DNA sequence: TGATACAACGGGTTATGAGTCACATGGATG
DNA sequence: CATCCATGTGACTCATAACCCGTTGTATCA
């Protein structure tokens, strides 16, 4: 599976845990709602700076975000 | 500290552990030698796909790469 | 001194990410 | 049914990531 899809799935999983909409998360991360859709569906190849905003919007740090089976070999 | 600087420092640290040059690492990751310098010095805002190539060149997965104090709140 | 290896910088081109819009779909609800 | 609400898509512009060149500076050698 593509790394962007993995990241999208991870974001969606964490967002659902917080019970918020794509739009709500997008607003906190200061990205467009439709852009967030693209990220979650793995269609966007995000830069580290944008990913940082999303991870922070999820109230996590990079270590926790990537500490998941999906990111392990 | 900026996220790109953190990533650059982390890459440099891991590269030195492996005792290889920027150019050697760049070749494995299939990026340009001068581009790798930019990444290590925190001047580049890399995309996830390129970061994946570098992390793989360091023989790590994302979970291990980000499992470091520097990426924790 | 000259040669070699490594790292950093400046500058230019090309590819693509970031940001935005209108519109479509599907589910729930009155 | 009509109207929200959440999500997804295609197309577009503009900024910048990705890529490549030559050069410079430094250290370490023979």
UniProtKB/TrEMBL annotation, chains A, B:
UniProt entry keywords in alphabetical sequence: DNA-binding, Transcription, Transcription regulation
Question: A Gene Ontology molecular-function term?
Answer: DNA binding
Q: How is this protein annotated for GO cellular component? A: cytosol
Cite the HTH cro/C1-type domain residue spans from the record: 11-65
Q: Which InterPro entries match?
A: Cro/C1-type_HTH, Lambda_DNA-bd_dom_sf, TransReg_Diox_bact_type
Pfam families xref list: HTH_3
Q: Which PANTHER family match?
A: HTH-TYPE TRANSCRIPTIONAL REGULATOR (PTHR46797), HTH-TYPE TRANSCRIPTIONAL REGULATOR SUTR (PTHR46797:SF23)
Q: What is this protein called?
A: Transcriptional regulator
Q: Which organism is it from?
A: Flavobacterium beibuense F44-8
